[in-house]
Amino acid sequence: MAKGRLGVVVTAGAGAMLVLASACGGGDGGTKRGELAAESSHPVTVTPADGATAVKPDGTVEVKAASGTLDGVTVQGGGKALPGEFVADRKSWHSTRTLVPGADYTVSVQGRRNGKPVTVTSRFSTLKPSKTLRIVDITPNQAGEKVGVGMPVFVRLNRAVTGKSAKAAVERALTVTPEKPVEGAWRWIGDDRLVYRTRTYWAPHQKVEIDAKLAGVSVGNGVYGVKDSAATMRIGAEQITKGDISDHEMTVYRDGEKVRRIPFSAGNGSTREYTTTSGVHLLMERESHVTMVSPGRKPGDPGYYKTDVDWAVRFSNSGEYTHSAPWNVGIQGSANTSHGCLNLSPANARWYYDHAQRGDVLALTGSSRKVEWDNGWSFWQMSFDKWKQGSALS
């Protein structure tokens, strides 16, 4: 039998039938049709088919060899390589993540048949959706910032995602990888917002990688994720402040060591509004100068106030801060007279401001008003088992 050259035949269908003939050789230089057909009876199949267009991005790329084995499969598209894995006998390969919408893909296959190397190439393109899903923000995201051991991860999307299966698809695309592992879970706090919280506080002094492999993820109604996103969160020292509102003081601990005792004057308790909340708070932001205005009141109303303060650190959405209060230094540590904030001396307020990290823990006791789990970042008020119930994967 005369030896033929390597032949590749691509036919349309569910997959591209890539037929591998025998290796190149001498002889009479010709190839007989019957001989080629006989040698080509065991195809390699690539799905999607060669030349396919408008392929759904949430599909899978598959390569199967009924004869011989696969040495390597490379799929390039959307500016990156598509990850995948072989079956144990290396007769098949499949992708392990979704595709980039509106992208051209090239599949390159290297294999062996009868001990001879073969190479096959196939191309297809994915559909470009009219409605897209993307991440607008991942917090924390400030360059060079170190955060506290209680810090949550916030993800905000550009559109609402409804339905448990669609939300589950988004969650499966999100991974949080700390250097020092700890159990955690996402919770939806709106159709376009998720928060990740751990069962226990993060270990200090480590990096946490957040990856959102959203490209190609389908959430129904023709909406697909269009790009991946990523962020790195850096956990700083473990800074936990414990305070007793009835005793008018708090103590700051850093990595387990007591570093400062701070007297304060908390809310006077005359109304619920003027009662400082008890519970596990997280420090949310720092502002060197803030104008405090009584909520729901205008000038001339009973209880109206407008006060400028320095070195303010917010710990709730209901207007609670630690801040400098030079007007009542003499009673700090002995009486509660504020409108709900923790009044500190100028020196203590500046020190606390300078050392505060977003996500540091401020645990307060001693008042009749408990902070709500969704008041600011007080997510630690909720048990972790209940927290997980807000996940679409629960």
From TrEMBL:
Active site: 323 (proton donor/acceptor), 341 (nucleophile)
Pathway: Cell wall biogenesis; peptidoglycan biosynthesis
Keywords tagged on the record: Acyltransferase, Cell shape, Cell wall biogenesis/degradation, Peptidoglycan synthesis, Signal, Transferase
Protein name listed in UniProt: Ig-like domain-containing protein
UniProt xrefs under SUPFAM superfamilies: L,D-transpeptidase catalytic domain-like
Keyword Manganese attached: no
Top-level taxon in the UniProt lineage: Bacteria
Domain L,D-TPase catalytic: start-end pairs: 239-365
Phylogenetic classification of the source organism: Bacteria, Bacillati, Actinomycetota, Actinomycetes, Streptosporangiales
Signal peptide limits: 1-21
Region of interest (Disordered), ranges: 32-52
Pfam families documented for this protein: Big_10, YkuD
